[in-house]
Amino acid sequence: LVSNFNAALALPFITERSDFHGTVYATEPTVEFARCLMLDMVTYFERAKSATLFLNKFQSRQKNRKLTLTPFYTFEDVENCLSKVNIVNFNETVICPGFGHLTPTASGLSIGGCNWVIETCKEKIVYLSSFTCVSTHAKAMTVDKFDNATAIVVGSLNQYPKKNPATVMEEFCTVVSNTIAAGGNVLIPSSPCGVTFDLIECLFARVLSRSPLPNCQVVFISETADTCFAFGNICGEWLCDSKKCRVFQPQEPFVHGSLVRGGRVKLIKSISECEKHDLRSPYIVFASHPSLRVGDAVQFLLLMKDNEKNTLILTDPEFSPNEVLFPYKPISMKVAFCPIDVRMNTADAVSLLSSLQPKALCLPIQEKNTVENLFSPSEIVNTQYYSTSNICPIPPDHRLVKIKLDPKLASEVTLIDLGYGKSVGRVAGRLTLKEIGYYVESDDTIEKAVYKNATLTCPSLKVAEQLLQKVSIIENWFCIFEEKNFFSA
Q1: Same domain, 9 and 147
Q2: Ranges for the Beta-Casp domain (predicted)?
Q3: In the prediction, which pLDDT does 466 show?
Q4: pTM as predicted
Q5: Are 207 and 213 in contact, with CB atoms under 8 Å apart?
Q6: Cys bridge to 108: 51, 141, 366, 484, which one at CB 3.0-4.6 A?
Q7: Which among 92, 88, 103 is positioned nearest to 31, based on CA atoms?
């Protein structure tokens, strides 16, 4: 289950470089944005030897660590991988043969980003990869399908709960404004989708259209930025209500389309084309990748880091400034860390999910101390913690499993009334697992002589339950309870 485009970047390693033969599900925007990010990554690794040279420089600073580059996937791997993805829509129930069914719902985090409701004949598991209730450009998160869950599993939460996204966005604009006013340039390592759409809108709404700054160029350097920008403006049904309304006016949901056409934002394929586009100071550069390990952002940082008037703004909450900048030290340019993390924080998430009354709430192990400090055991539901590569046990929801009987087979069952609306009988058939769940059907090859003359007398339900505990289920023998027109075995 691919929940958002960031979660898809390693998918080719799974589908093309491993023994995985399962089914992959994702929404259409997730697939299209993931395609752009994957193609960008392949381009960076297949360019000149800069990646290898940079690795050597990075390794020289890591005395006790031996680093090697794992062969990256190729353009062909990307296309083969994405061709195997099954496209699903929000609130579309997909039947998984032999398993159950699943339903994606909006997570609110990104265009096409989703949570998953996984239902079998016994359990209902809700998986929340990354989610938010903060208003973003994506369709708002919904929780109406999370009721009566056996377990809710949470993937990731806000790592900077004390930093309000709106406040951080204001800080971002202030840093940009001060840098340009002082005659410096700004470098923003980022991907060509996601929060970048919000950064560009905020930048022009609060800084470049109001402040008396010198004529400043805004450049986005990426092989696929034009595709991402164009696709973002045709995803009306996947956007928040305010942007969806713009589609029907008709207007473009995002302003970046008109900014590109008007020349206010320039889209450049690579740093080698900057001279052709006459890039002059002062300028604001968006370039991939946020990790500062590959991509044009690496080259720009090497060019800009010795000028104290320039500023590097790090906005991705997944990358620590100290780790990101370690290979580039010493560095003279100013560095601003503005982590824009709109994911729900631990306190709000636990409160919200506990109110839904799941039988179990599964959280990442790193959240354990925070939860125990914020809540008493009586305030939250049964909470369990998991770590990478470890199994998180989920309490079983039922002792018995509901089974449907073939009508012909059911008509042949002789039932003994136990009272209280309960009956017990014996049946032989073939048990199969179908899309509807467990199903018992007639099978003439089964030898019925072994039980056709058997007698079964049970004076009470309690005795019947004791009998069932002693019965060994062998081969195709099944003890069937009838209760309100359905059978449980």
Answers
A1: yes
A2: 196-325
A3: 57
A4: 0.80
A5: yes
A6: 141
A7: 88
